[in-house]
Amino acid sequence: MVQTNRATSNDAHPNQSSLCQRVNIPHVQPVNNRRQFLAQAGAGFGALALNGMLAEADIIENGIATPGCHHPASAKSVIFLFMEGGPSQLDTFDRKPLLNDLAGQSLPASFREPITAMGEKGAPLLACQRKWNRYGESGLEISDWFPHVAQHADELAILRSCYGEGINHSGGCNLMNTGSIIAGRPSLGAWVTYGLGSESEELPAFVVMKDQKKPGTNGVRSWGPGFLPATFQGTPVGEGPGDEVIANLKLPEGIDEPRQRQKLELIRKINQLHASRLPNISTLDARIRAYELAYRMQSAAPEAVDLTQETAETRDMYGLDNKQTASFGETCLLARRMVERGVRFIQLFSGTGSGWDAHSGIEANHTKYCGSVDKPIAGLLTDLRRRGLLDQTLVVWGGEFGRTPMSEKGNGRDHNPTGFTMWMAGGGVHGGQVIGSTDDLGLYAVENRAHVHDIHASILHLLGLDRLKLSYNHQGRLERPTVNEGKMIQQLIS
To answer: What CA–CA distances, in Å, run from 122 to 59, 112, 116, 137, 414?
Structure first.
């Protein structure tokens, strides 16, 4: 079922009441059309449970739990490994021998362009101190900062020609996560769940996990709904107090399940009565459904995040018993468990709060962060493969930008949005290949350049979504996830 300009149709679904009963959604004040439903379903309500209400919303709007795609999909879900702060492509996946040959010299005049405002003025080129090897049948060159990921070389499609306009962390993170350097647009995960829904009625469709309990560069804006209904924003997992993975799921002291059910029924009736008197209040309908999802999550979510069910071999594969890798390893293992249970889009943050930002001491910084994610990411790829999930799960790795070949503060590198590296694996992507290139010093993307909009368009395409057909009517204007730009990177599948 092709969903073209889906938010603009005024046709109501004829079997709305029966659909509500079929998925155990309480009957609520009827709406006259889809636009009215979308308006009531979500502006501004940000409770945890509301974030996962997409499945119910899509059932009511479209009549099916998971709407069809615009074209055949090769991926059903996405795990986006986001290295916040900007990892250096020059020291990980994009080897530049000339950089070491010219180390200590100024950037040659032939590389200088007006945009080259990055790095200290006249700063010398900084050599890469890593050792490089070729891996797999494909012979991809990967540095010794990623020895475990390198074992999956034949599954990686390395995009060495990425670029964007976000020169600082806020703008760069906004661009990579929402398609714009200016705040206010929906995150990519919100667009995906808006377009496809979730396969689970008990878990949110879009989940966010961080390696540290801090807001990060842009906080909720990186996984927010923008102008989409609030139901489509990401649900933070791992934000609970103490060892509680998901906050507010445990029943309060002295409250058993029957009493909780009675309490929710009373709240539902009060909300319905209030909604019938105020039909134009957008959050009430969504709030009613939010309580229902929260109730179902109380039984399903604890099992989903219970890592004690995993074998010692699996825990070791993700590095859970090592202090350096335990934090990110746990989020990677949770991501696999959530993919198994139908979660559509999972974003994992490493270096929450721009941890990868190595303006000085890049050797110490990247040794720390690469060491914390290398084994967990390799474990994730291995685990997905052996469980038969990698072919249908798209794994994406990258940060908001890369680093400059010029030094900063003597032993660091500055931000570089004009040429950096990302990679994809699984989800129908042809591995064992390099796509595009930067110049001989790794400063500018020069061959098969891939803008952030192209990356987003490619992720959507692999999920079966057309970037132009997926739209939302916002204030009388059709908005699209890549701001009417971007194209599918065909080499990913050819």
So the answer is: 59, 11, 11, 41, 13
CATH architecture for the domain at 77-193+305-492? 3-Layer(aba) Sandwich (3.40)
What tokens were used for 257? Answer: 């399940």
Q: Quote the pTM value.
A: 0.82
Q: Give the number of other CB atoms < 10 A from CB of residue 44.
A: 11
* φ, ψ of residue 379 in degrees (nearest 5): -60, -40
Tell me the pLDDT of the chain (494 aa) as tens digits. 333 334 333 333 323 222 222 223 333 344 444 434 433 443 333 333 444 444 344 333 432 223 558 999 999 999 999 999 999 999 999 999 999 999 999 999 888 765 545 655 679 999 999 999 999 999 999 999 999 999 999 999 999 999 999 999 999 999 999 999 999 999 999 999 999 988 888 888 999 999 988 888 998 999 999 998 888 889 888 865 555 666 666 666 777 778 877 877 887 788 778 777 776 554 566 566 666 666 666 667 778 888 999 999 999 999 999 999 999 999 999 999 999 999 999 999 999 999 999 999 999 999 999 999 999 999 999 999 999 999 999 999 999 999 999 999 999 999 999 999 999 999 999 999 999 999 999 999 999 999 999 999 999 999 999 999 999 999 899 999 999 999 999 999 98
Where are the chain's structural domains? 77-193+305-492
Q: Which of 489, 470, 467 is CA-nearest to residue 7? A: 470
